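Bumping my old thread because nobody answered last time. Still need a sequence for this structure:
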């Protein structure tokens, strides 16, 4: 258990002082037939991938569509996400500190 805490502390220490960890830049977007993977990058160089499942039918109740709408891009403009900043949430997971897109903040507009 102590090792997990030490790893999380080390990862936090790698982040530059004064950085806002409530929002992080999107550094890559990868699309497959079934998913869209959004890679979040920290100032420390650590990267975290958050995936959205592509729906069989696009619509208002589609999580990916809601994300793209909130970010102001269309399904054919995924590359435009790179360089944008997105709200992020963090938690200590099995491999240390983990970041993901804060869906509530992004979709709720907070």
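Sorry it took so long. Here it is:
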């Amino acid at each position: 258990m102590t090792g997990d805490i030490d790893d999380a502390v080390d990862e936090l220490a790698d982040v530059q002082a004064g950085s806002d960890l409530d929002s992080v830049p999107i550094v890559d977007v990868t699309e497959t037939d079934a998913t869209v993977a959004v890679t979040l990058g920290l100032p420390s160089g650590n990267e975290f991938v958050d995936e959205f499942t592509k729906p069989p039918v696009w619509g208002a109740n589609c999580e990916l569509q809601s994300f793209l709408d909130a970010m102001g891009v269309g399904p054919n403009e995924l590359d435009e996400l790179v360089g944008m900043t997105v709200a992020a949430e963090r938690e200590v997971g099995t491999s240390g500190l983990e970041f993901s897109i804060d869906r509530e903040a992004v979709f709720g507009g907070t």
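The mean pLDDT is 84. Let me know if any region looks off to you.
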